[in-house]
Amino acid sequence: MTAAEDPYGERLCRAFLTRVLEPGDETGGRWMREHGVPEVARRLREGGEPLPGVSGTRWAGLRARAGRAEPERDLDVARAAGVRFVCPGDTEWPAQLDDLGDARPLGLWVRGRPSLRMWALRSVAVVGARACTEYGAHTAAALSAGLAERGWVVVSGGAYGIDGAAHRGALGAGGATVAVLACGVDRPYPRGHTQLITRIADQGLVIGELPPGDHPTPSRFILRNRVIAALTRGTVVVEAAYRSGSLVTARAAQRLGRFTMGVPGPVTSALSAGVHELLREEGVLVTDAADVVELVGDIGELAPARRGPVLPRDLLEADARRVLAALPAHRPAPPGEIACGAQTTQDEAIARLYELRALGYVERHGDGWKLTRQAVIPVGDGRTRC
């Protein structure tokens, strides 16, 4: 990065701080808000009196990290790997990340050609359990494919299970997807997803807060989830146990005022228990991409009306349906009994019976009338009473 490109050194300072501060460090975020990024970087490099809000021990740890940081080298390594460092204030910076306040990322290391800001404008997070069921994987893939076909970007964490199924579903539909990693974007994790993450980088975007070569830790996975929640218009949880990290993403979305959605599963499955708890609290139940888009999309992007199949008898006039319902299921009945059950006159009942006969619902047996096999629907004890 040349002086002309970064006259005040802030980009270099932010790259430096990604080596020193952990993602989501609100104390560090407050320092930068109150003192400015260059001053915080200078104090950490040069030492002196600790900045407020940390113990002497922690300040010493931060200073030790600062001594090992080589931001110029990180930027060179990133550039060689086709990775760019996007900072707040850049044209490509997604403004919705500013909703995180002091926990906002220092910057994002971005691998892939598309504009992160443009893709984030119309994006949905699909997250869930790593050790998912076949049902969960199928649902996540189908939902993500449906979102991609409707022009939405699918964002997830690149992990095994639901994350991987979501990415594959979007890619399989020829759509757009973004993987948010908890490590350096030049070293795919998990290693078993190297091919998938490479494909995402080729066709979409791989992003993260950590500098090149940095490794994931359990806490970094949890902190990564706030970026997924803030970046997108809403978060869908497909499968999650009570202690699932994907529920952290959903609750972060709730705090940020984003839509929070859950796909229900079997009540006997522990992997759906967390989703069901989310739905009991404030989440919205969704079953497919149309439901999601109706919630997060623009006015008029409505899901189709859901109803069961229309049966031929549903098309009958009301009087004919009452006569049909008055016939016993398994024996012929005289017109008077049928008229009584249908609450009409005998003449009206006979007229309707002949209509129903023409449609194949009833047949005449001597002086009585009986349902045909196609018209029999078991209800109650099959008898008609006045």
List the helices and strands and how they pair.
Blueprint: H1 10-20, H2 26-35, H3 37-46, H4 56-68, H5 71-80, E1 83-86, E2 108-111, H6 116-120, E3 123-127, H7 134-149, E4 153-156, H8 162-172, E5 177-181, H9 194-203, E6 205-208, H10 218-231, E7 234-237, H11 245-255, E8 259-262, H12 270-281, E9 284-285, H13 289-296, H14 318-326, H15 335-342, H16 346-358, E10 362-365, E11 368-371
Parallel strand pairs: 3-4, 3-7, 4-5, 5-6, 7-8, 8-9
Antiparallel strand pairs: 1-2, 2-6, 10-11
Helix pairs in contact: 1-4, 1-5, 2-3, 7-8, 7-13, 10-11, 14-15, 14-16, 15-16
Order of adjacent strands in the largest pleated sheet = 1-2-6-5-4-3-7-8-9
Main sheet: strands, sense, barrel:
9 strands, mixed
E-strand count: 11
Order of helices and strands: HHHHHEEHEHEHEHEHEHEHEHHHHEE
Percentage beta strand: 5-15%
Number of domains: 3
Number of helices: 16
